[in-house]
Amino acid sequence: MSHFIAQPKQGVPFVSVQAMAKLINSLGIENVLLELTHKLETDFARWTEFDKSPRYAAHSPEGVIELMPVSDGQMFSCKYVNGHPKNTFRELQTVAAFGILADVDSGYPVMISEMCLLTALRTAATSALVAKYLAPKNSTTLTLIGNGAQSEFQALAFKAVLGITHIRLYDIDANASKKAFTNLSAYGLNVTICNSVQEAVQGAHVITTCTADKTNATILTNEMIPQGVHINAIGGDCPGKTELDTKLLERANVFVEYEPQTRIEGEIQQMSESFVVTEFHKVVNKQSLGRTSQDELTIFDGVGFASEDFTALVFIRDQLIKSGEFTLLDLITQQADPRNLFSVLNTEQTSAQEHVA
């Protein structure tokens, strides 16, 4: 199959928010999460094929703007994404993202896509994939601490991949929990809103922390968490932003995506360089063990990595090829003589003069 959805002279395929929502709804969100989880597993299995680096980050007092590039030698992807927690009070998204997929041989963009919805999908699918290997067997109950934009995606991914049936919600903003409760009501889950973190974690097999404040917080303390639980810690994703008690990390078997990046941005930024973690691809490739017993405490220190965006963009590209429905953007000049870029201006000028005449 060609790397291009369409020939480059026809334009660059663009996936808008509306087009992404239509595609997800047509496929069914749980089906999307299941298939995306499988694609992520396949790409984690070929981890060594990716050219990897920590993301570029421009930090400010109010947030961060990041670029996340990666390539497998055939395709290149890069995501622009921000994280501005106070945007909620401005009626703006805390995370705004878009991405590009390109053909390495020609350098031409293959697709440009919104990545607010797509990032939520890939983050949830990654969480569920890791939990497939690390969560205790026969897990039924997921606690979601932080019920913002990511929460429903997390719940549905864990339902689709692990068979989770019970969701326990807690957020310092009660309206956020009510929002998640309402959105999940149609998906056959037993959902409970809790009044505290302590109440929410009771009886949980998996705990997801996904809070927004850019601060070294302690959302989960050591005393709250018994052995045998899997913690999916995905809220700490920049320097100075954490959610877990260091004593929890010391007790646990900790897994990360790409250690050089997680040392900067994840929960383990609190720990010494000698603190031992396992990159998740080693578990997929059977180079390292995952959960070793039902009584073990496991933590996924997930900050999001560029290869996951790559997988998600390729997945959407493939779905668009199947559907044949996409919009083309006139993004790259296509003059008759590739060396005569100036002719594009002359063509535009001639067109304007003809219009006036």
From TrEMBL:
* Residue stretches spanning the membrane: none
Can you tell me which residues the record assigns to a coiled coil? none
| Superkingdom to which the source organism belongs | Bacteria
Q: Gene3D superfamilies from the xrefs? A: NAD(P)-binding Rossmann-like Domain, ornithine cyclodeaminase, domain 1
Q: Which Pfam families match?
A: OCD_Mu_crystall
Name the UniProt record assigns to this protein: Ornithine cyclodeaminase
Q: Which organism is it from?
A: Pseudoalteromonas aliena SW19
